[in-house]
Design a protein that fits this description.
- The protein has a seven-stranded mixed sheet, sandwiched between helices. A two-stranded antiparallel ribbon has the order 4-5.
- A hairpin with a 2-residue loop joins strand 2 and strand 3.
- Helices cover 34% and strands 30% of the residues.
- The protein contains seven helices and nine strands; from the N terminus they run E-H-H-H-E-E-H-H-E-E-E-H-E-H-E-E.
- It starts with a strand and ends with a strand.
- The protein is of the alpha+beta class.
- It is globular.
- The protein has a single domain, classed as Aminopeptidase, CATH 3.40.630.30.
């Protein structure tokens, strides 16, 4: 089965992203499955995804025309679009990478990455991030995101890919790892 990577551009792409997101949303799967398979936290809508896509590519992995993985990318403008993300952006403003404040870097925010269970173990997370990096406008230096500390599978996959933990913090309900990857 051939897997292609492209920027999401159709309503079908965005709807399929949301379908895969719902299948892996922490509120929809058991704690056991969360521990074994990982999970996603944020819920998006088609209009939000389209606003994100207007600024940065939202890369999808396609197999037989269907979305089997995605990597959402955003800029700091989403701080105002998704108030639930405000604590993350506030943390980014307080963090440093290699002795410099994050604010001095041009960085994209990893908005969420997810791979269909049937396609895991094939290196798609790495390929999705690389496909995103290759489609970014010039000048971006880092990808920064946060991962729930209890999402060990995701954290390990990101570390394996080259992400570094640069901070850990507690919000109202979760411990989070802030991670960065040099583009």
């Amino acid at each position: 089965m051939e897997i292609r990577f492209e920027a999401a551009s159709t309503d079908q792409h965005f709807e399929q992203i949301l379908q895969l997101q719902r299948q892996n949303l922490f509120t929809e799967i058991s704690e056991e499955e969360q521990a074994q398979q990982g999970f996603v936290f944020a819920e998006h809508t088609v209009p939000v995804l389209k606003r994100m896509a207007a600024h940065l590519p939202q890369v999808v992995a396609l197999c037989d025309g269907g979305v089997v993985g995605y990597n959402l990318a955003m800029t700091a403008f989403m701080k105002d679009e998704m108030p639930r993300l405000a604590p993350m952006f506030e943390q980014f403003e307080r963090n440093q990478y290699k002795g410099r404040p994050l604010a001095t870097y041009k960085f994209m925010v990893g908005g969420q990455v997810c791979v269909d269970k049937a396609f895991r173990g094939r290196g798609l997370l790495r390929k999705l991030y690389h496909a995103t990096r290759d489609r970014l406008p010039p000048g971006y230096e880092l990808c920064v995101t946060e991962i729930a500390a209890r999402n060990v599978r995701s954290l390990e996959a990101h570390k394996k890919m080259g992400f570094e933990v640069i901070n850990t913090y507690l919000d109202e309900t979760e411990f989070w790892h802030v991670v960065a990857w040099e583009l």
